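Good day; I would like, with your permission, to put a structural problem before you. What I wish to show you is a protein chain and, alongside it, a tokenised description of its three-dimensional fold. Here, with my thanks, is the record as I have it:
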Amino acid sequence: MALLSNPKLDAVAKNSIWEEHVRKENKTISLGETFSISDPRKMDILPEKPNRTVPAPQPDPKDVASASALLHELSSLKDTDKMPHERFALPVTGNMEYGFFSTRPLVPTNPMFDYKTRSCDVTNFATVFVNSIGHSPFARTDGPTSK
């Protein structure tokens, strides 16, 4: 290819040299036209389409109700709103023993970090205003959601 960079050659000569090079290269190139798999056991299998469904028989409502009851019985989330002494008969862990049987907190809440929901004059006025006119001033009066 160093011959193509020769400054004495004109464009036609460079093009004919390149054409000869491409012809020689095309003679030696042979594409594999037959397809074969060496070992079909090693072939990659494509997975099923993600939206393919196989219809399954519907369980009867009695089985569904019994399974739901069992799940609710075994669930650890069913009593999350209860205090520990209401959930368990005895302390489960060693840390639970401290204050387990007391019904009020052992340490009073710190007012510095305890932010109760309080109303100010503006929110009190807005509540009274909405109650007096019967609906929010921001509610749509026309449309599908209006009464």
The first helix runs from residue 11 to 28. The chain has a mean pLDDT of 82. Residues 1-26 form one domain.
